[in-house]
């Protein structure tokens, strides 16, 4: 009983917080004196924050009406919940990073300020350079409610030292031989884990909680969390059952992935491979282990790519909404977009070339950027997102919990997930 109430509470909190923020039209009365802006972000990475602050300092040189721009990192696992709690509690930020999985709720809520006019009027902004495909998730009624700050495909970082010491072919060698498949990737991970005593493959930010990150795996089988129109559950499909059966065996039989309750940080040298995005490349240490970055392995349905998107929006009721929107335009102009591209692949078509991205990504080779980032953006599908994602996500996570034990009945568990979420999808 308590669990059911908690799940409903998450959805109600998100909807209520956004509705509350949307009420009343424009911004609250501005404070007297220069504005102090706050932007919530998911990353506490020093390199990310250093670049954000450098751009903010540059902006403030010519904008005396803005006294401070603070970047407020929130924990990744609870980011959206914390953000909506701040909004509901009257402590909303001026700008907020928004994940793709909550984009439909934020965009439709009326809580965000339309950005089109500000961006189009900003000197030298080149709005027409933004890829229309990257804008779709953040538009409603012909208006843009969040800038697609990062359109970042998932790839596989590889500790080539661990793989070679285990006597295995590296993913690059498997790619050259036309053998970079999930079957071979999992076999390599299992063998390396067995020889090294460390983890084989880690799907970063999954940790048996962030289920939507598993879309980087099951998409290779042609599986989907729900249908394109969002009305039908896909967890019980034959493709999903095959994908999750493969994953279950890899965890509990092959030991290719660390099991529940076990953590392993690839960037600390604790795993042979990890599925994640290029923004994590900043965690690689100079003089550390040998590494590579390669595309996701092919699944039974062939090659594919999965993209994570993050938007940057201005809260309509910010007392400094005008200044916040103006800073957003500066933060994402062509010059600063090129700087940010070292971590966050931009939506600007002119900047999505291997040569351009390589200038600000010294750790990554042009070939890696082309195959993982550019080709991934061109061909990738976005991680699962849906209106009412908060409650959906909680129900999926709860429904998948019985899967993470050795003797689980995979099909029965997945059918149970559909039983939980189909009523929500059909609304």
TrEMBL record:
One of the Pfam families matching this protein, by short name: SBP_bac_1
PROSITE patterns: PROKAR_LIPOPROTEIN (PS51257)
Protein's UniProt keywords contain Signal: yes
Gene3D superfamilies: Periplasmic binding protein-like II (3.40.190.10)
Domain of life, source organism: Bacteria
Keyword Kinase in record: no
PANTHER family xref list: ARABINOSE-BINDING PROTEIN-RELATED, DIACETYLCHITOBIOSE BINDING PROTEIN DASA
Name recorded for this polypeptide: Sugar ABC transporter substrate-binding protein
């Amino acid at each position: 009983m308590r669990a059911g109430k908690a799940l409903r509470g998450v959805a109600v909190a998100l909807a209520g917080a956004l509705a509350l923020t949307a009420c009343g039209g424009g911004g609250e009365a501005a404070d007297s004196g220069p504005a102090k802006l706050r932007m919530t972000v998911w990353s506490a990475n020093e390199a990310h924050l250093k670049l954000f602050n450098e751009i903010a300092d540059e902006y403030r040189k010519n904008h005396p009406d803005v006294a401070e721009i603070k970047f407020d990192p929130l924990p990744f696992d609870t980011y959206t919940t914390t953000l909506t709690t701040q909004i509901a509690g009257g402590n909303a930020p001026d700008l907020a990073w928004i994940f793709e999985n909550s984009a439909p709720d934020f965009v439709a809520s009326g809580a965000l300020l339309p950005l089109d006019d500000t961006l189009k009027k900003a000197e030298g902004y080149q709005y027409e350079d933004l890829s229309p495909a990257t804008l779709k998730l953040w538009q409603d009624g012909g208006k843009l409610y969040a800038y697609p700050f990062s359109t970042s495909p998932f790839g596989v970082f590889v500790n080539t030292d661990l793989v070679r010491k285990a006597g295995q072919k590296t993913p690059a060698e498997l790619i050259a031989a036309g053998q970079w498949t999930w079957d071979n990737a999992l076999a390599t991970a299992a063998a390396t884990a067995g020889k090294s005593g460390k983890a084989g493959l880690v799907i970063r930010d999954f940790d048996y909680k962030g289920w939507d990150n598993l879309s980087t795996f099951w998409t290779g089988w042609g599986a989907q969390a729900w249908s394109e129109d969002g009305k039908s559950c896909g967890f019980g499909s034959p493709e999903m059952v095959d994908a999750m059966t493969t994953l279950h065996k890899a965890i509990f039989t092959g030991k290719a992935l660390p099991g529940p309750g076990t953590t392993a940080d690839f960037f600390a040298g604790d795993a042979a491979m990890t599925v994640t995005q290029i923004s994590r490349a900043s965690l690689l240490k100079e003089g550390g282990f040998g590494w590579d970055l390669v595309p996701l392995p092919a699944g039974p349905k062939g090659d594919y790519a999965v993209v994570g998107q993050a938007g940057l929006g201005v809260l309509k009721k910010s007392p400094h909404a005008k200044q916040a929107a103006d800073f957003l335009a500066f933060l994402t102009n062509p010059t600063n977009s090129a700087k940010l591209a070292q971590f966050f692949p931009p939506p600007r078509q002119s900047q999505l070339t291997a040569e351009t991205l390589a200038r600000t990504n010294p750790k990554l080779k042009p070939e890696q950027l082309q195959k993982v980032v550019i080709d991934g953006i061109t061909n990738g599908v976005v991680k699962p997102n849906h209106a009412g994602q908060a409650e959906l996500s909680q129900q999926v996570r709860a429904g998948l919990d019985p899967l993470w034990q050795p003797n689980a009945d995979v099909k029965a568990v997945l059918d149970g997930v559909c039983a939980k979420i189909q009523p929500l999808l059909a609304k």
